[in-house]
Input
Amino acid sequence: MAKHPVPKQRSTSTRSRTRYSTWKTNELKRLTKLSRTVPCPKCKQPRRPHTACPTCGYYRGRVVIDLAAKDAKKVKTIKA
Ligand SMILES: [Zn+2]
Output
C-alpha cells in the first residue's frame, strides 16, 4: 500500500487548466495589490498606502519616523 496521498481519480487536462487559470488570476491580483503605491504628499516619492513614508518619515502631516535616529542605529521600520 502507498503511504502517501494518492489521487483516487485521474484529473483531466481541462480540470487542471481551469484550476491553474483561476489560481493565476488570483495570484496576479495579489501581487499587484502588494506593489501598489501612492505618491507621498510631502516628498512625492512612491510609498505604500496607509504607511509612513520611508523617504521623509511623514505620515498624516507629521514626522512619525525619526530618520536621523534611524540612520544612527538601524531601527526597525515599516516595510515599504
Ligand atoms: Zn515622503
User: Anything to note?
Assistant: The first helix runs from residue 13 to 34.
